[in-house]
Structures are given as structure tokens and as C-alpha cells.
Amino acid sequence: MQTPKPLLPDAARRTAAWCGVVLLVAGVAAVGVWLCVALKTAVTPVLLALLGTALLGPVHRRMTAHGVNRSVAAGFTCALLVGVVGGAGYIVVASLIETGGQIVASLKDAGQWVVDHFGVADGVDVADLATSARKLVEKFGASAAGGLLSGLTLVGSLVATSVLAFLLTFFFLRDSDRAVKLAHDIAPRGTGDLVEAMGRRAFEAVEGFMRGTTLIALIDAVCITIGLLILRVPGAVGLGALVLVGAYIPYLGAFISGAVAVLVALADRGVVIALWALGVVLAVQVLEGHVLQPMIQSRTVQMHPAMILIALTAGASVAGILGMLLAVPLCAAAFGILGELRKAGPNAPGAQAGPPGQPEP
Q1: Over the stretch 102-117, which tens digit does the pLDDT of each residue have?
Q2: Which residue has the higher pLDDT, 134 or 45?
Q3: What is the pTM of this model?
Q4: CB neighbours of 207 closer than 8 A, spacing ≥ 6?
Q5: Using CA atoms, how far apart are residues 174 and 156, in angstroms rounded to an integer?
Q6: CB 60: neighbour CB atoms within 10 A?
Q7: Is the pLDDT of residue 129 over 60?
Q8: Which of 33, 145, 258, 319 could form a disulfide with 154 if both were Cys (CB 3.0 to 4.6 A apart)?
Q9: Rounded Cα gap, residues 166 and 169, in angstroms
Q10: Burial class (CB in 10 A: 0-12, 13-18, 19+), 277
């Protein structure tokens, strides 16, 4: 009996199959993103708690390894988290409040200097631009605050999110030993080890990113602050605080904070000091890119800069600044899971199994 000839060639059928897979994955991802946005008041504390757990998880593990009760170790680690984050937040906010007006005035003067010397936009009043930008920020902030939690103010919602994230961090640290059993319980039969390996790899990627980024941010902020203090640039401590915060947004944060530092130096100290400030910023960025990142983040998932920028753009479009902060660690976790799946390959559970009723080769 003659076998009927396929309607489409083999290449077309393979292309159609891959298109179907891509559409299915994209649809599932779109539904997942939509659910996260719809449930953002619950998802945001969970993600923040995971980041906090990844940052201070090694402290908790070291304490439990020395015989400390898991609940006591989790409580101490959470108190340490509050102290570190609260102290750093206070220093950053206090520095920006103390020198923020001076930095804004210097930026306005720098913008006017550029307009006057290069004639990039004749007739443009920098003060009008600053006023328009401030109104835009106020409008955006009002709309964002109105959409977070109905009936609550922005401050109230931030406090509620912080408290919930703190409590979740405590439970994640205390009950992390049960995660392996949970992975085996929810996984389909025969895939528990693979699910456990993917979970471990994803968490290790986030943990490495958080620790490495925090250490690099501190080094960058200290080095740039010292350089600006030596150059006697006004608002050096506030600019260093801006560098510390911006370091958690790869590439984009460093570019913006460095540009602000150079413009402030240009407005208050002249072109020569601005060039020296630019040299300090570039030297710190070279140190970060060629020394600090290879040494500190060598064990984390390495992503191409283009992928990071795409992730930042997608995160900003979904959740604004918070999305930009969470985009890279989430992508690091996703790349860790994909790497584990690729490493499993044909050795994954059931991959070599023959048809039902036949023994495996």
C-alpha cells in the first residue's frame, strides 16, 4: 500500500510546530504577567521577600550550621535586614534631602550652560523644562498612588508592603529546609529531582546577583564619593547615594547617576573639573566591568547586555521603577532554570523511555 504524500514539506511542518510552541509559551507568559499585574499587591511582597532571603540567606545558613535554632536565626537575620536596609535607606534619603536642592540647581545651571554654549535649542528656558518635568512627575506619582491600593494612601501601601515582605522573609528563611520536600510533592511523578535542581539553580542565580550587585554598588558609591569629595564637587555624598541606588538597575542606573555627577561638576566647578569627574566615573565603571564583576559575580548567570536592557525595558513597561529593579534578578532566575533544563537534556526523567509496554533500551 502506497504511503500518502504529506500535504506540506518537512521543513514547513517543522517551522509550523516551532511556531506553535512559541505561541503557546508566549501565551502562557502573557497570562502569567497579567496575573502578576492583577495581583501585584500580593506578588510584590513575595518578590521583595525572595530578594531579601537571597541577600541574607548565607547569614541564616551559617547560624543554623553552628547549632542556632532556625526560628531564632531567622529572627536575627530579619532584624539584620531591617537594620541594613533601614540604615542604608536613611543615609540615602538624608543625603538626597540635604543636597537634593543643590543638585537640582546645579543640573539646571548645567542645562543652561549647554544651551548657551552649543545652541542646541534657541529660546528654550531651562526653568520651564524643570517646571514641566516636576509637574509630570507629580502627575505620574498621583496616578500611580491612586492605583496601588484603593482607600489607602501611598505611604500606607508602602508600609503594608514592607511589613508583609518582612514577615514573608522570616518564614522563607525559617522554613527553607522544607522547600525540597515541597518541590518533590508538587512535581509530576519522576521529575522531583529535576524540579528541585531547577529551583536551586534559580535561587542561586538570584542570590548571587543580589550579593554581587550590593557589594559592587557599595564599592562604586564609595569610590565615586571619594573622587567627588577630592574634586570638591558640591553634593558629593548625595551623588554617591544616587550611585548606590542606581547600581541595582544595570547599565542604565550607572549611566544616569554618572551623568548627573558630571553635570553637577560642570555647573559648579567648570569644564576642567567636569572632565576630571568624568574620568573618575569612567575609571570606576572600568574597574567594575573588568575587575569587580568577573571576580564577584563569576558564579552567577551571565547575561548579554542587550538581554539586560530588553529586560529593563519590559520591567519598566509592566511595573515602572519596581519592574526595573526586579527585571534582572527574575531574568537571572529564568536563565538558571533554562540552563538546568539544557544540562539535563536527554538525561531528564522519562526522556529515554520507550513506548508504553516496552522495556527501556
Answers
A1: 666 666 766 666 666 6
A2: 45
A3: 0.67
A4: 54, 55, 57, 58
A5: 27
A6: 24
A7: no
A8: 145
A9: 5
A10: buried
